[in-house]
Design a protein that fits this description.
By secondary structure, this protein is of the alpha+beta class. Helix content is 34%, strand content 19%. It has one domain. It has 4 helices and 5 strands. A 3-stranded antiparallel β-sheet has the order 3-5-4, covered by helices on one side. The chain is extended, with a radius of gyration of 19 Å.
Length: 139
C-alpha cells in the first residue's frame, strides 16, 4: 500500500510516496536500533498504513485504544504527529476533531540514516566530555 502525497519535486519536505517498506525501515531505525525483527516492523507498518489508506491524515476516532497506543509510540519516535481542528456546531458548542498525520520529512531522515541528533541513541558515555575540569572543584 502506498500513500501518495502532494509534494512538489525537489521539495525539502520528504518523500513523495510512502510505502510499507519505507515505514517499516523508519520504524526499525527509530524505535529499536538493537534488533527489532524485520517482520515485527513490517507488521506494525502494514497495520498503520491500513488505517491511512491513500489519505494524508486519519481521524483519531477510528482508533481502538491498543491502536492508539501504537500511534503514540510512533509519535514519540517522530514518525507521526497530531493536528486538531475546531468547529462550531449549530447549537453554539465547540467541537474538536483530532487527526494523525505522517511526518514524511522525519521518515525520509530515518530511511536515509540521518536520524536527528536529539534522538536518544542509548550512548551516554560522553555526557561530561565537554565539561571543563575546573567545574568540579569546590571552593
Amino acid at each position: 500500500m502506498n500513500v501518495v502525497t502532494k509534494i512538489k519535486k525537489g521539495s525539502k519536505r520528504g518523500i513523495s510516496t510512502l510505502t510499507v517498506d519505507h515505514l517499516a525501515t523508519a520504524i526499525k531505525a527509530s524505535i529499536d536500533r538493537e534488533g527489532m525483527p524485520d517482520e515485527e516492523a513490517r507488521s506494525l507498518a502494514q497495520h498503520v498504513m491500513n488505517f491511512f489508506g491513500y489519505s494524508e491524515r486519519i481521524i483519531d476516532n477510528v482508533l481502538e485504544p491498543e491502536d492508539r497506543d501504537a500511534f503514540y509510540m510512533l509519535e514519540d519516535a517522530g514518525i507521526l504527529t497530531t493536528e486538531r481542528e475546531e468547529t462550531t456546531l449549530y447549537d453554539g458548542r465547540e467541537w474538536r476533531i483530532h487527526y494523525w498525520i505522517f511526518r514524511k520529512d522525519r521518515i525520509a531522515e530515518l530511511i536515509g540514516g540521518n536520524a536527528d541528533d536529539s534522538e536518544d541513541t542509548g550512548d551516554s558515555s560522553d555526557v561530561y566530555e565537554d565539561v571543563p575540569p575546573e567545574i568540579w572543584n569546590r571552593e
